[in-house]
């Protein structure tokens, strides 16, 4: 693709998946490095405070992933190469980011005391700034995915993750404590500035336009962001949900948060990072969307089954050896948390297929129902560990049913819930 107005050029080939897969692996290693440094530097109670902020940023940035999904779909759609263009996604994303950051800042006095028990002012300020930057970051990822610029897509991912590690390592060495890891959490949200300086393809993606007006783009993005926000509660913001339904989590909460994070990361980090690939793949397979789900679902299930065994056998030992003797969890808990991670991974797949079909309301409904069910299940009068497993396993199953039902009804590949699209 040589200019910013050409149609999508990069098919979702095996090579493109490999490139993004390598970037995902590097990003995952960087994420593990940040968690490792924080767990080593902070005691479990302190790690639970960091974990809540990590989850809070994951929640708001996860909602911003709706911009990636809608930008990918709009740029990738076959009509995007022939119709007159009206909207610059990056400009819209910048405005959305500033508005969202302002909303968080203004409303912070109402909720921050219930979420952040330490470094409250710094947490709110970093949350606002990080979200504003991440809205641009994720939209740029969506434009690169829609254009098929997979190498630049992967480079932007790795730059994000690497900046986090650099700041976390500096904080660990300098003894900054909790504050250093809060800064590290949001550092990558501005990695797009570096990519704009060094990558012509990224600059072209920043200028790309999509069909339809701004209102049309925002309508689709709004549905996607609502669903992405609900998914972020389960995928990244679960510590926040846990804190909201359990009060002070203490040392037990720190162990549960770390266990949840470690057992889901091998599946959910790659799937989240490859949202652009998945949506582009399902758009290209729009005549057989349900059939197209079979292969990736089988792969997720197979990898998950292996993960369950490894978590049960080696998980408790790995947790103690890697993070310290104070982090103790039995094999059964880690195995069930891995099963729950498989359920969320499958929900992520069905969600990608649904948003690719422009079934925005069904996509949002599936994730919102899954999250609401999980929140309700967390209120059961059970031990914290059992509540976490039940919520993370049962909620996603309801969401999967919603998505599959919508895809089964959409046999013609035409989405009745979105602005008219020429398939």
UniProtKB/TrEMBL annotation:
It is found in: Cell membrane. GO terms for cellular component: plasma membrane. The chain crosses the membrane at residues 20-39, 45-68, 89-112, 124-146, 153-174, 180-199, 220-243, 249-271, 292-314, 334-355, 362-382, 388-408. Keywords: Cell membrane, Membrane, Transmembrane, Transmembrane helix. It is a multi-pass membrane protein. PANTHER family: O-ANTIGEN TRANSPORTER-RELATED, PST FAMILY PREDICTED COLANIC ACID TRANSPORTER. This is Integral membrane protein. It comes from Mycolicibacterium gilvum (strain DSM 45189 / LMG 24558 / Spyr1) (Mycobacterium gilvum).
């Amino acid at each position: 693709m040589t200019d910013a107005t050409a149609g999508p050029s990069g098919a979702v080939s095996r090579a493109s998946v490999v490139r993004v897969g390598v970037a995902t692996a590097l990003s995952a290693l960087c994420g593990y490095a940040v968690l490792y440094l924080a767990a080593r530097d902070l005691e479990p109670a302190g790690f639970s405070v960091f974990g809540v902020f990590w989850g809070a940023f994951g929640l708001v940035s996860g909602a911003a992933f709706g911009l990636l999904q809608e930008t990918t779909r709009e740029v990738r759609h076959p009509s995007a190469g022939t119709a007159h263009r009206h909207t610059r996604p990056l400009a819209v994303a910048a405005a959305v980011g500033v508005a969202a950051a302002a909303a968080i800042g203004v409303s912070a006095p109402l909720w921050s005391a219930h979420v952040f028990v330490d470094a409250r002012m710094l947490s709110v300020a970093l949350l606002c700034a990080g979200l504003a930057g991440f809205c641009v970051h994720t939209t740029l990822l969506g434009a690169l995915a829609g254009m098929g610029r997979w190498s630049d897509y992967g480079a932007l991912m790795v730059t994000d993750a690497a900046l986090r590690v650099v700041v976390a390592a500096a904080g660990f060495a300098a003894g900054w404590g909790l504050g250093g890891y809060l800064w590290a959490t949001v550092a990558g949200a501005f990695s797009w500035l570096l990519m704009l300086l060094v990558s012509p393809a990224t600059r072209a993606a920043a200028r790309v336009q999509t069909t339809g007006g701004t209102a049309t783009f925002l309508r689709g993005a709004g549905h996607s962001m609502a669903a992405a926000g609900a998914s972020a509660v389960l995928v990244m913001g679960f510590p926040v949900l846990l804190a909201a339904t359990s009060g002070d989590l203490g040392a037990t909460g720190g162990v549960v948060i770390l266990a949840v994070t470690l057992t889901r990361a091998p599946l959910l980090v790659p799937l989240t990072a490859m949202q652009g690939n998945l949506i582009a793949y399902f758009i290209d397979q729009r005549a057989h969307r349900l059939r197209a789900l079979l292969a990736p679902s089988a792969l997720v299930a197979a990898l998950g089954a292996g993960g369950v065994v490894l978590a049960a056998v080696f998980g408790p030992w790995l947790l103690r050896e890697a993070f310290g003797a104070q982090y103790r969890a039995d094999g059964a808990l880690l195995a069930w948390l891995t099963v729950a991670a498989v359920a969320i991974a499958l929900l992520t797949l069905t969600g990608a297929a649904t948003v690719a079909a422009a079934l925005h309301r069904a996509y949002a409904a599936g994730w919102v129902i899954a999250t609401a069910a999980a929140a309700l299940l967390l209120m059961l009068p059970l031990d914290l560990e059992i509540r976490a497993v039940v919520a993370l396993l049962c909620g996603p199953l309801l969401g999967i049913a919603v998505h599959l039902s919508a895809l089964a009804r959409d046999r013609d590949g035409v989405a009745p819930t979105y602005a008219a699209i020429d398939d």
